[in-house]
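Researcher: Sequence recovery benchmark, item below. Answer with residues only.
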């Protein structure tokens, strides 16, 4: 399992872009994790699934609402990862009004989740292999803080906890 001090795994996530710009075309675009995190401070949080109750009502909104505070604390970007495809993540981004604040990144085949060792098997609930709920502060590709939730919990991966760590 990934730990503080480790480097993010070499994987590719997918991001749905609705407006062309910054070298990105409309539609799903690959995001090379190593390149995208290089030289940046990233507030990264992951969750079991787009449009799920806790994720939609609490997890994403907290990061969207605290965007300015994260920026003031030196965070360059906020990433939300879920084992969903880029189209679902794009639709969820519209629903959550996260554009320009939180990058909604799809880990469609759970490659990132598997590489970090932070998977959650929800097969019995019809959702297959998913990502555990967690947050991490990443500086130049290295994990400097990691907050992993217990099963069914939402206590340590929230925006307030990670923001406090970014300010420290």
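Model:
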């Amino acid at each position: 399992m990934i730990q503080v001090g480790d480097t993010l795994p070499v994987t590719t996530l997918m991001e749905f872009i609705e407006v062309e710009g910054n070298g990105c075309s409309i539609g799903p675009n690959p995001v090379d994790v190593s390149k995208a995190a290089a030289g940046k401070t990233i507030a990264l949080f992951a969750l079991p699934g787009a449009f799920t109750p806790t994720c939609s009502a609490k997890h994403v909104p907290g990061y969207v609402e605290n965007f300015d505070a994260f920026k003031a604390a030196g965070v360059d970007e906020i990433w939300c990862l879920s084992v969903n495809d880029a189209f679902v993540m794009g639709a969820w981004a519209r629903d959550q009004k996260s554009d320009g604040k939180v990058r909604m990144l799809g880990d469609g085949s759970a490659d990132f989740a598997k590489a970090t060792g932070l998977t959650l098997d929800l097969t019995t609930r019809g959702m297959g292999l998913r990502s555990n709920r967690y947050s991490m502060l990443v500086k130049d590709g290295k994990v400097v803080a990691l907050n992993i939730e217990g099963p069914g919990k939402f206590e340590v991966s929230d925006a307030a906890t990670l923001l406090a760590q970014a300010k420290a």
